[in-house]
Amino acid sequence: MSLIPTASAHRCFVEQFSGDEIIVKAFYEGDAPMGLAEYQILNADTEELLYEGETDEDGFLSFAPVEGVTQYHVVVDQFGHKGDAIVSATGGNNKPAELPLFMRIFTGFGYLMGLAGIAMVYTTKKGNN
User: Fold this and answer.
1) What is the rounded distance in angstroms from the CA atom of residue 26 to the CA atom of residue 35?
2) If we measure between CA atoms, which residue out of 76, 77, 80, 88 comes closest to residue 18?
3) What is the Cα–Cα distance from 113 to 90, expressed in whole angstroms?
4) Closest Cα partner for 36 from 66, 4, 81, 6?
5) Is there a contact between 126 and 119 (Cβ–Cβ < 8 Å)?
6) Other CB atoms closer than 10 Å to residue 95's CB: what's the count?
7) Best-predicted range by mean pLDDT among 1-10, 80-89, 120-129?
8) Using CA of residue 16, residue 17, residue 18, residue 22, what is the dihedral sign?
9) 41-61, pLDDT tens digit by residue?
10) Whether the model pTM is above 0.70
C-alpha cells in the first residue's frame, strides 16, 4: 500500500478555467501543482504550435485566444510526466472521463493478483519437471 502515492504521482491532469484569457492549471493527482513545467499550446485541429513556455510555480499558464481557433491542445511535461487536454476557447473542459480512485486501486490489485497467479502456475510446472 505504501507504493500507491508514488505511483499516483505519475498521473498528470490539465484543467481549464474561464476568463478573458484562457487559464489552465496543470497538476498531479492529489492536486500537487506541476510548477515550472514546460508546456505547448497547439491548434487542436491542425496541431500547429501556437504558444510554448513554462508554467508558474503553482502550475498555472495563460494565453490569449487566437482568432479563428476554437479548440486548443494543451500539452504539459515535467520530468517525463505528461498531461494533456483539449480545451475550448469558449470555456468548459473537454477532459476525458477518469475512473474513481478506488476503482484504479481495485484494478491495480487485480493486476497484481493475476501476476501472482501466473508466477505460481509457472513455479508449480517448473517443480513438476
Assistant:
1) 8
2) 88
3) 45
4) 81
5) no
6) 14
7) 80-89
8) negative
9) 999 999 999 999 999 999 999
10) no
Cβ-proximal residues to 25 (8 Å cutoff; 6+ apart), any chain: 14, 15, 17, 33, 58, 59, 60
CB 57 within 8 A of CB 42: no
Predicted local distance difference test score (pLDDT) of residue 29: 83
Contact 61, 70 (CB under 8 A): no
- DSSP class per residue in 51-75: EEEE--TTSEEEEPPPTT--EEEEE
Residues 6+ apart with CB under 8 A from 90: 70
pLDDT, tens digit (0-9, with 9 covering 90-100), for 95-124: 554 666 777 788 888 888 988 889 888 888
Q: Give 26's contacts (C-beta < 8 A, 6+ positions apart).
A: 12, 13, 14, 33, 34, 37, 39, 55, 59, 60, 61, 76, 78, 83
As a residue count, the chain comes to 129
